[in-house]
Amino acid sequence: MEFAEREARGVSSTYERLSLAVARDDEVLALLGTLPPAKRQPNLLFGVVRLLGGPVDDPAAFHEFTVRNWPAVEAELRIRATQTNEAGRCALLLPVLAALPQPLALLEVGTSAGLCLYPDRYTYRYNDDMVGSDGPVLECTATGMVPPTGLPAVVWRAGLDLNPLDVTDPADVAWLDALIWPEHTHRRARLHAAAAIAAADPPLLVRGDLVDHLPALGAQAPPGATLVVFHTSVLYQVPPRRRTAFTEVVRGLPGHWIAIEAPHVLAHDALPDPPDKALHNVLSLDGTPLAWTRGHGQAIAWFA
Ligand SMILES: C[S@@+](CC[C@H](N)C(=O)[O-])C[C@H]1O[C@@H](n2cnc3c(N)ncnc32)[C@H](O)[C@@H]1O
Prior knowledge:
This protein is α/β, with parallel strands linked by helices. The protein is built from eleven helices and eleven strands. The protein has an eleven-stranded mixed β-sheet with strand order 3-2-4-11-10-9-8-7-1-5-6. The protein is globular. The structure holds S-adenosylmethionine. S-adenosylmethionine (SAM) binds at residues 81-86, 89, 109-112, 116, 160-163, 209-210, 231-234, 237-238.
């Protein structure tokens, strides 16, 4: 229900309808109930069914496919996680990145396939203002801010993830594609355009934990560049005690820290009301909240 009302509504009518139907589907709920709680997320289930070629646009057909193919669905649910990699979130990072002392050494924790490590290779449209001229165009509705006028200079890019995905592996790209919501053809095109950019000049991707392995990776950043550790939609997958450990580690590094996370996941002392009832994340720099942001990078409302 929460997924339907706060995440899918107004963003994917297919997933809003499907998640409302699944919330009332005792048979599918009983099957999901046999899995650990982290494996019961709507987005994970819908992505797995899509990966297996099942229908998501008709709730009755979805029910039939899921129940009939449960062994295969369950096997994929158990090995996969929601690793959606959304290059569009670079539109939320850019205003902060462009204002930091250049050049930048970027280190993204929870990087998935590393597509957010290329904020200098995409083009942005904030309302009517364009920034950049190459790569996919990332559209973002911006309020309360003057859009950046230029791209950052990036001299190093590294990503850390428990399970880094490889944009040169068709199976990994197929999973990233299956995670994109059905009507979002613009996001699917963006994924493939961004994957081509990453494949042409791959980042350093390290398999590891964002607490245990961050200091060693940060130490590899070149001297003379501003180290920027950042993460977008990651900490909800990290247990609360490890989130605290992470914020302590990241604050101890010589550089800046950009977070884009839900406010119940990364708390801030004082926040204004969000622009509307939709689910919003908070953009922060070194722990100071700056803006409300929408999940796929489609909107930013600056309040600082
Ligand atoms: C929802 S994805 C977001 C990916 C990317 N940040 C983006 O916004 O497009 C979250 C990623 O965090 C990674 N992750 C979760 N817990 C982690 C941990 N403890 N250490 C490193 N990565 C982690 C997952 O494997 C996954 O790839």
